[in-house]
């Protein structure tokens, strides 16, 4: 296991650098620049030239990429002119909201999607199976932004059960820690439901398909022939062997939830990385945009590594040399 993890970590390095190179190239070729967005029209030509030289040096692409890479290796991911702070500080101030939202949505998706998939598989072609199948198809087809706006109108505007935007109420800004924590959780309920229910459909479909394949196996028929209770057969024997596709999905959905929070955070005005990335695009804040995407890339690579390691915990037959 130790050697496998070391090999995978070494493989992450060239993949990470390759993705960064492509990302940097795309952003470098994008029209416009941060200078055109922040430059004052009343500036003198001399001041404009000085600002252009400072923020947008006329260097070849590979030279700019190498300079950024050297600085990033020392912990400097650039400077956000919009926030007047280093990029890593801006991301650090906003990443907590995104992780809290993504984690809550993932828990909701797993708690609903996996049991629903098991029930749907064990009661194949029944009324409840048909209902859950239709629900999952709606979840896969319904855009997140539409579901978010719909739930916002119904539960926040019409019923007034939840706040319409933000991460804390104005009356609790100076409150104690526990009051703030409760208010944060209250503001996260609706956006987490929007993001979580969208992922529930994927977990349900994967679980159903995997369970249907497993429960037709010979060893499941043998377990039933031995007189074992149906719950023992399903949850102890069948479900554990059906978990590998679910673990694979989990490895990809963790970073997917973080990037998927972009639209949800924008709709609910949550101060997270998703909303921050939208502002970075609008402001042509390319250092911040590169820093955010570098973080998402690392999250994706490490999530797949964790998923590979979890295979051995799920299925003892899997061994790593």
Notes on the protein architecture:
By secondary structure, the protein is an all-alpha fold. It has two domains: 2-74, no CATH class; 96-282, MetI-like fold (Orthogonal Bundle). Helix content is 76%, strand content 1%. The protein has 13 helices and two strands. It has a two-stranded antiparallel ribbon. Helix 6 packs across helix 8, helix 11 (243-268) runs antiparallel to helix 13 (286-314) and helix 12 packs antiparallel against helix 13 (286-314). The relative contact order is 0.14. The model has no long low-confidence stretch (mean pLDDT 79).
Keywords:
globular; MetI-like fold; mainly alpha; 321 residues; 2 strands; single chain; 2 domains
